[in-house]
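ok trying again, last paste got cut off:
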Amino acid sequence: MLYRGEVAMKVSVIVVVVFLVGLVSSGSLKEFSVPGSLRSQAAVRYRIDPAKSTFMVHANRTGLLWFRGHSHRLAVRDFSGEASLTPDVVNPASLQMTVRTASLEETDPVFTQQEKNIINKELKEMVLEPDKYPEIAFQSTSVRGGLKNGKIEVLITGDLNLHGVTKPIEIPATVTLEGNNLRAVGEFDIDRDDFGVEATSAFHGLVRVKNNIKFVFDIIAEKV
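nice, full thing came through this time. structure:
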């Protein structure tokens, strides 16, 4: 013998089943699918390809006789790392990158090869000291951003370890995804004094390198 509550429940179940069957037959069931933002999404990993990427350091001149000196355009030749990004919703996301300090070298065509050799020697012996500090490393602590004009605009916060000093920095970047590749383009500044990085000077100190150092990057990474 069924009680009134049990009868009502059975009728409700039958009604729901009939309704869903009707939706399936009409092709309208997709309206009840779980939204993408609510589904569990896994972050996709990408490995940086240095051969397809560019990473430059711009150090400009200052001082009373700055016009008698030339700014430096240093190329980072040896670096590696991984990025991860969650499709559609960006987060969770992360970036880890390591640079071989000794791989930085002068590339500005205004210098002769002999001058470049001198600059690179001073860069290693007096400025970056790769024997003591062989690597420059960055590890993100948070990534914020979203879609804008078909691209992903992000602000990466993390810790930069340079010349034995670790400081938090922010890196804005524009990220695009195409096939198995991720491309990140952007630039950021640091104050070299914050990291205890010395700079060479000329003309008895009247020409010297500015404290503000700019990093410019165009990074290509491939899905792992």
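cool. The chain has a mean pLDDT of 78. The chain has two domains: 1-33, 43-223.
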